[in-house]
Amino acid sequence: MKMPTPDASVLARRVEIANALRAIVPGEGVIVEQDEMRVYETDALTAYRQLPMIVVLPKTTEQVSQVLKYCNEIGIKVVPRGAGTSLSGGALPLADGIILGLGKFNKIMDIDYGNRTVTVQPGVTNLGITNAVAHEGFYYAPDPSSQIACTIGGNIAENSGGVHCLKYGLTTNNVLGIEMVLMNGDVVRLGGKHLDSDGYDLLGIMTGSEGLLGVVTEVTVRILKKPETLRAVLIGFPSSETGGDCVAAIIAAGIIPGGMEMMDKPAIHAAEEFVHAGYPLDVEAILIVELDGPEAEVDHLIGEVETIARKCGAVSIRVSSSEDERMVFWAGRKAAFPAVGRISPDYLCMDGTIPRKELPLVLNRMAEMSERHGLRVANVFHAGDGNLHPLILYDANKPGELQAAEDFGADILKLCVEVGGVLTGEHGVGVEKRDLMIHQFTETDMNQQQRVKCAFDPDGLLNPGKVFPQLHRCAELGRMHIHRGQLPFPDLPRF
Amino acid sequence: MKMPTPDASVLARRVEIANALRAIVPGEGVIVEQDEMRVYETDALTAYRQLPMIVVLPKTTEQVSQVLKYCNEIGIKVVPRGAGTSLSGGALPLADGIILGLGKFNKIMDIDYGNRTVTVQPGVTNLGITNAVAHEGFYYAPDPSSQIACTIGGNIAENSGGVHCLKYGLTTNNVLGIEMVLMNGDVVRLGGKHLDSDGYDLLGIMTGSEGLLGVVTEVTVRILKKPETLRAVLIGFPSSETGGDCVAAIIAAGIIPGGMEMMDKPAIHAAEEFVHAGYPLDVEAILIVELDGPEAEVDHLIGEVETIARKCGAVSIRVSSSEDERMVFWAGRKAAFPAVGRISPDYLCMDGTIPRKELPLVLNRMAEMSERHGLRVANVFHAGDGNLHPLILYDANKPGELQAAEDFGADILKLCVEVGGVLTGEHGVGVEKRDLMIHQFTETDMNQQQRVKCAFDPDGLLNPGKVFPQLHRCAELGRMHIHRGQLPFPDLPRF
C-alpha cells in the first residue's frame, strides 16, 4: 500500500519544532522516540497505522492554546486525540503532524447537583462521570460500548451514542457547555449550565465535528437521576422482518423504551456461545426492550410491550425478574462485538442509519449482498433509532477478503443513503467513510460544510485527511471554484 | 428618534430593482406600494416600525434562489419573514432592503406515519402541522403561545419553545431536515427523515440563527403520538421561593413533567380576572405541573408531585379531574400576556434563561429592581427549564417610562448572565437584545460567531442589524482586526 507523502520541509525541521513545543509543554509532555510513540500509531480502526512526527501531551488550556498558535503560525498539522477508541480512524496520526493528546486533562472540576451538571476536563472517561455521581443516584446518559475507556472529549468529537440514546439522546443532547481552543490559539466558551442558549449553536456544530474545528478543554454535561425501576424484555422472532415490525409498533404505540436493541441469528449465536446469556437459539432475531421509570409505569409498559410483541408474531417473551437477570440480558448484547471476534479472524463494523420503517427492506438487501460478496454478516443494532451495526466477517490473511469486506461495507452504506439514511450514526466519518461522503452530499453541500470549516481553521491544519474527500482552499470556496488541495492519505495504508 | 440611514444609491435604483425582481417573481409577487407594504412594517415587537424598500413574495424554491442570487450580486439587503410574530424584532424591515415573505409556502407536502415525520413548506403554521395529523392521534410538540399564527420557518429561525419544551425539547430537538437557500442562491439540504446525521451539524446552526444564515424553503419535523392521559396539578405557594424550591425538588425526584409553569401574584390576579381559571388569589405563586403518559404512570406521578409539593410548603393543591378542568388550568397561563395587557397600557416581555437553582435569587433581585425603577413586573415562566418571562408594565404615553422599562429589562438580562444564564430562551436576540450581547459574549466569542456568519453570507446582506452589535468585514475577521461596519439601526426608531 502506498503511504501518504509527508511534507519533507516540515520533517526536516522536526528537532526545531520539538524544541519549540518543549518550551511550551515542559518536562515529559513532548515525545519524539519512535518506541514511545508506537501506542499512538492507530486507534480502534486498527486496519490503518501511522507514526506521528511528534506527540504533545499538554496539561493546561494555556498550553493547548500556545501549541495550536505555534502550529498555526508555522503550518503544522495537528491531530487531537482522547483515548484513541475511534472506530472510524478519527485519531489516525499524520507522518508530518503532531498528535495532541488530551490524556492529562483528567480532572473532575465541579459537581453541581442543584443544576444537575458535572464539569470535567475532556480526558475524563465517559464512565468516570457516572462513577463520580453514582453514589447520589445520578448518571450520565450516553453510554457507548467503549465507555470504560473512551473520553468525554472524544464523545463530543464523534457525537457518541449508546444503547440508551433513543430515549436519552446522543452526546449533543447531553452536553451543555464547553471551553475550546481555536486553531489560532483563541479560547472560547460555548454554552454553560443553562438549558437554552443564544448566539449561533456553535456547541452543536462542535459536537460531531471529528476534531476538525477546535480542541475541547473543558466540558459541562447534564446528569440524570437513575430511574427508580429498570426492567428488560427479551423477545424472540421468527424473522428479522417481524422483529423490525415490532420495533415500529412499539414506537407507534407512543412508548419510548430506555433501550431497544436487535440482534440477528449469527450475532445471537456468537453472543450466546461467549457469555451464555440464555438467548433463544431457535429464532431468527431477538429484541431487547428496556423500560425504565417509576415502578407503576414500568409494570404498565411491560404489559403493553408483551401485547404488541405477541401481535407481531413473537415466538418467545421473557421479562427480567431481577436486576441480575436484566444484566444478563444485556451482557450478550454488550459483548456482541468481541463475541463475533471469536467466530471470525477479523470483522468490519459498519454504522449506517436509516429511517426506521426501512429496516425490513435493508435487512433483506443486506442478506442478498452477503451472498454476492461471499462474506457472512452479523447484525447488532440500535433498532429504536434505525442505527445499524452490521459486522462483516472476513479473514485478513486470505487475499482479497479485506477488499471484499470494504466493498460490501460500502454497498451497505450506499444502500442506507439510497433509502434516505446516512453513512454514520455514532462512529463518525473519519478516514473510513471519507470517500463515501460524495454519495451522501452534493458538491454544494460539501462546499458549504467546508466554508464552515474555514471559519474555524482557515489553513486546514486540524485533523486533515478526515471526513472530507476533497480539501478546498478557503479563498477559493467563496468563488465556488473547485481545486483539490493536497490530501493526506490519498491511498490509505492498511495493516 | 433617529432613523437608520439607508443607502441612497440603492434607493435610487428602486424601480430598476423592483422590475428585476418582477422578472423572477411574476404576477402579484412584488409589492412596492406604501399602503400595501404597511402590514410588513413591524412584527410582534411593536415598539419599532420601518417600511421596507420592496416586498417580494416568492412561491417556489427556484424563485427564492434567484431572488437571493440577484440581491447578492448587486448588494441588496434581505430580511426574511414568516408570519411576523417575532417578539425581538427579528423581522423588522430595512428602508433599503427587501422583505422576503414566505407566506405563499403554505403546503403540507408529505405525511409519513411510518417514519413519524411531516414535511411542509416553511409558511405552514406551527398548529397547522398538528392539525394535519391530529385525526391519527399525533401532534408536533413545540407549542409557542403564538402557535395559531407563527410559521414553522419562523420557529426554526428563533428556535421556538413553548410550555412543553422541558420534556419534548425546543424546535432544534424536533426538526429533522430542511432545504435551504444560501445568499448566493445555492440550494442545500440538511438532515432528512433519519434521526442521526453526518457532516457538520448545519441544521443545528440554522435553528436559532434568526434569518442571518439562509432562507428555509422546506422542513421535515418529527411528530409524536398524543399521550394516552394528560392531567395537570395546580399548586399554590406562600412565596415564589417555595415555588422555586418545589420545581427543583420535582426535577430532583427524577420526574420530567410535560409542562411546569409558574406565575407570580400580579400575573395570577391579571389572568384570573381575565379568564376566571379558578386560580387561588391568596397565594404568592402558583405552579401548573402537567403529567402525561399511560394512565398508570400519570396516577403514580401525580401522587409523587402532591407529596413533594406538601413537603415544600404548598398551601393549596388541585388535580384536574377532567379534560375540561385541565384546559381551564392552562387557559389562565396561556392568556397571561393579554391578561397583563388589560391591567397596563403597555408591557415589555423579557426572555432570560438561568440555571434552575438560581430562581429564588433572581426573583428576589427582580423585586428589588422593580422598586428601584418604579415599575411593576409580572412573572410568568417556564419554571422547569429556567426560562423567565418577566412582563414589565409601563405606559408609553408617560414620558420616560419606555426608557425606564428598557433599562429595567436590561438589568434583568444582565442579572441572568451574571448568574450563569443567557439573554434569551426562545424569543431570539433580534434588535431588542442586540446591544446586550456584549454582556454575554467576549470579543473572541463574537468574532468566532461572525466567522461562521461569513461562511454563509460573506457580504452580510441577510438580515443585517439583528443579533450582532458590531458587524465586521469577513476578510478582516481572519486577521482579528476590529472594524465597525455600517450598522443598520444605529439608534433604533421607536413608536
UniProtKB/TrEMBL annotation, chains A, B:
It holds the Pfam family FAD_binding_4. The keyword Flavoprotein applies. The keyword Oxidoreductase applies. GO terms for molecular function: FAD binding; oxidoreductase activity. Keywords: FAD, Flavoprotein, Oxidoreductase. PROSITE patterns: FAD_PCMH. Coiled coil: none annotated. InterPro entries: FAD-bd_oxidored_4_C, FAD-bd_PCMH, FAD-bd_PCMH-like_sf, FAD-bd_PCMH_sub2, FAD-linked_Oxase-like_C, FAD-linked_OxidoTrans_Type4, Oxid_FAD_bind_N, Vanillyl_alc_oxidase_C-sub2. Residues 48-226 form the FAD-binding PCMH-type domain. Its cofactor is FAD. This is Lactate dehydrogenase. The lineage of its organism: Bacteria, Pseudomonadati, Pseudomonadota, Alphaproteobacteria, Rhodospirillales.
